[in-house]
Each structure stands twice: as structure tokens, then as C-alpha cells.
Amino acid sequence: MLNFALCDDNLSFLSNMEKTINKLIIKHDFDAKIGFVSNHIFELLDYMKENTVDVLFLDAVFESNINGIDIAKQIRETNKDVYIIFITCHLEYTFLSFQAKTFDFIAKPITSSRLEQTLVRLFDDIILSKNNFISINNKTFINEKDINFIKRDGMKLVFKTHNDSFEAYTSFNKFSSKLSDNFIRCHKSYIVNINNISHIEASSNTLFFADNSMCYIGPKYKNNFLEVINAS
């Protein structure tokens, strides 16, 4: 599920924007949610330190003379993948906004139809580019860096992320080609994202993650798995 964040210094505008986006998410059955809304830029930065934001709607100029484009450049230093969409009435910033690898620039006042065009194009782009998102079905996308491990459970796979879990009726063999090199088979029933392991308990062959979830290392896969871990 894509996590949206909205930041603009106009509270009334933010409220209307949030309502409109939620209506469009329902209309198109987009696999997305609005996880953060604020009129304070530093609240946004604090939120993004602890949470994954996939799509950011950001004002280009705040009343406190904070330049949204400079903020976007700062965000880009730690988040290369977030889709940034600027919202502003200052059209003179259109060209400068693309220095932050902007997905779109929407002029105020924003209409529902204009916003709908952007969201439809956004999801089309995700489907075509696979921009670190994994499609587990036609409607559900997961940012692969959020996946702790994938568990085989009968005829389905369970994708365990930091905050949730998702299911898809498929197999390891069909899905493994979609994964990057940091996903390693560690057990007959588990593929693990080695980047998200917080620690390994060797005595019980157990892998732990920051959200306190866990999975296991199987005897058949242990030697190869540990070689990969030691080499990384």
C-alpha cells in the first residue's frame, strides 16, 4: 500500500485536498492511504525519518519563507524513490521544482479532475517502472525495502512488512525473479530481506527484525545464507 503525505501551510486547502484524494482513491480502488497531513514542514521531516512515504504532495513556498524545493532536495538526499508532487500558486517555481526530480507540478486552485490525472499517471508509472515497488496483484503494491520477509503458507505467500502483512496466491519460484539481490532464501518457507535484519540468534537459528517479527534459518540453507550475510 502506498503511503501519501500532504504538507501545505494552508489548513483549509489541506483539508479539501485530503478529502479529494481520498475520494479518488476510493473511485479508482487505488492501493493507497494518506498517512500524514500537516501544515508544518518540520513535522513532515520528523515523520519521514520514522515512516516510509511513497508519494509526497508539497507546497513550493511556505508563508514562513521556507522554500519547498530546498526541502525536497533535502528529502532526496535520504529518499531517492519518493514521488514528489508540488502544489503551489507560484508558477515561477515550475522549472526549479524539477531539480528535485519532481513527478508533477500542480497549480492552485487544484481541481478534482486535474488531481485525478496526476494520480492515474502516478499509478501507471509505478506499474511500468517497477520503481522499487513490487506488485503482488493487480491492485496491491509494496515498497520492497519495507518487506522484512516472505513466508510460504500453503498455496499462498505472506509478505510481512514493518507495519502490515499481505497475501498473494503464488509461489516462490514465480515471484523470486521480481526481487532484488538483498532477498535471500533462508528456509524452505522463508525468503528474507537481509537489509532489515536487526539481529541473528545463532543458537535458535532465528532472525529478528525491528518490529519484533521473526523468521527462521533452515539447516539446508544455513551455510549459504551465512556466507551472504558475512559478505554483505
Strand order of the largest sheet: 2-1-3-4-5
The tally of helices reads 7
CATH architecture call of the largest domain: 3-Layer(aba) Sandwich
Could you tell me the number of beta strands?
15
Sketch the topology as an H/E string, one letter per element.
EHEHEHEHEHEEEEEHEEEEEH
The CATH class of the largest domain is Alpha Beta
CATH superfamily of the largest domain: Response regulator
Instruction: Give the rounded overall mean pLDDT.
Output: 86
Largest sheet: 5 strands, parallel
The radius of gyration over CA amounts to 20 Å
- Please state the structural category: alpha/beta
Q: Considering DSSP H and I runs of 4 or more, what fraction of the residues is helical? A: 25-40%
| Shape designation | elongated
How many domains make up the coordinates?
A: 2
Distance between the terminal alpha carbons, to the nearest Å?
Answer: 29 Å
Strand content: 25-35%
Q: Stretches where pLDDT falls below 50 for ≥5 residues?
A: none
Remind me, CATH topology of the largest domain?
A: Rossmann fold
Entry summary:
The chain is 33% helix and 31% strand.
Descriptive report:
By secondary structure, the chain is α/β, with parallel strands linked by helices. The chain has two domains: 130 residues, Rossmann fold (3-Layer(aba) Sandwich); 85 residues, LytTr DNA-binding domain (OB fold (Dihydrolipoamide Acetyltransferase, E2P), Beta Barrel). The chain is 33% helix and 31% strand. The strands form four sheets. It has a five-stranded parallel beta sheet with strand order 2-1-3-4-5, with helices on both faces. The two termini are 29 Å apart.
